[in-house]
Amino acid sequence: MTDVDYCVVGGGFAGLAAALRLKQAGRTVALLEARDRLGGRTFTEVRTDGSWIDRGGAWIGPGQDRVRAMMHEFGVPSYRQYTDGEAMIVVDGEQHRYTGTVPWSMSPWAAMNIGAALLELGHMCKSIPLEAPWTAGNADKWDRVSLAHWLHHNTLSKSAYALLETAIAGCYTSDAAEVSLLFVLYQMASGGGPGFVLGVHDGAQDARPVGGMGAIYRPMAVELGDSIHLAQPVRHIHQDADKVTVRSDELIVRARRVIVAVPLAIASQILFDPMLPVDRSFLHQRMPSGSIIKTAVVYDEPFWRADDLSGQSAAPGSPATITIDACTDTGRPGILCVITEGPIARRIGRLDAPERRAATLTALAERFGDKARTPVDYIEQNWSIERYSGGGMLSHAPTGVLTQFGHALRRPCGRIHWAGTESSAVMCGWVDGAIRSGERAASEVVEHESLVTSGGKSTTR
Asked: Where in this chain does the record put each Amine oxidase domain (predicted)?
């Protein structure tokens, strides 16, 4: 049995940030991670040539102050995402090149439809109270309908609908019919609106850490040292009058409080004793993750740049639904990141690996030419089958969930506190939001102990 001040469950950025801040505050900490690695829904692989592949979350953008602060703390620089040249969309087999956010080179009617829908979404986002989106004036109305329902009633162009569904529903790695409109508005608003969420330059994909996300989480892990325990999936959390007991297959940790920083659906696999309050328990059941396959296709050089292409492309329904230039700061080798999400990811996930590779490379060749058919490396990460992620980069709320159970997202349950990017009111869904949530949970537990010591009344019970 290990006896510490605090236990943290989960070694993604939320759990690492919580444990790091607690240790820096002079507390003893045990961090239990189910995998044999850290990083959670980020995963940086360093190649033999010194380049790196971010198999999971990779980008940072303006306003993401907490991830920037963590990078500054550990001396990690950033570099801007490559955006020179034109982006591309493929609709009904026809290619359209464009610059900016809206592809005006396609049908003017469809482009106007896209622009108007994004403008309306931005307007609705401004009415969302970030700390409690379920209290918005139209919360009940917006939580009764899905993103698909709203798109059907606000796009008159078939092409506009297909592109908006791909761009927006892709953020939740699910079909548009699976996601509540209120949740979409909340998540977008947490980042500043649809322009940020869907944008590259000055948007959510504006820059990357040099060395990938691993350049941030590795030095965090070094500072935590032997506080980290890998390959320890937590099975049971028991609260009593004095402390909490956290059990994995091999460890028993006794602590004053525990911070659970794993995806919501994964938290439902832990046995809590006594049982969690009904609303928190139901929240775990009702906020799933979606499906996403992220593939790094590596070439000797980024040949698309010579063709005046940025590498950014979208093709609804394609096995290579979205692409983006994923080269390191040196620009060599050439790396195209292919992102396939939602129903398409589930469909191609049923193919065997050679068939999936062939379908992806064929789609890339149709977009970027025959050079795309012959990569020097092909690295696929299917997050849909990750045991301890449960799917995509962000858990989402289907219709009716936020208004019924959203209030339980951050509320502690006795000695159990919650972290994870889904619980962050700012930058929900990004690494920055994960760090914010971990730091918030660490402050909660320290504040509680300070109140107990001083004889004050806790506000976190």
From this structure: 13-445
Annotation-wise, does 110 bind a ligand? no
DSSP-based three-state secondary structure for 208: strand
- Chain segment 283-339, per-residue pLDDT in tens: 999 999 999 999 999 999 999 999 999 999 999 999 999 999 999 999 999 999 999
Q: Domains, the chain, ranges and CATH?
A: 2-40+213-276+413-454 (3.50.50.60), 80-101+203-208+290-388 (3.90.660.10), 106-198 (1.10.405.10)
363 annotated ligand binder = no
Check whether 73 is labelled as a binding-site residue: no
Taking a C-beta distance cutoff of 8 angstroms, is the pair 416, 260 a contact? yes
Residue 47 neighbours by CB under 8 Å, 6+ apart: 53, 377
The tokens of 452 are what?
A: 């107990």
The answer to whether 237 touches 416, Cβ cutoff 8 Å, is: yes
Token pair of 157 as six digits: 């162009």
Q: What is the pLDDT of residues 340-350, one digit of tens each?
A: 999 999 999 99
CA distances from 385 to 108, 389, 391, 439 (A): 40, 8, 7, 29
Helix (H, G, I), strand (E, B) or coil at 65: helix
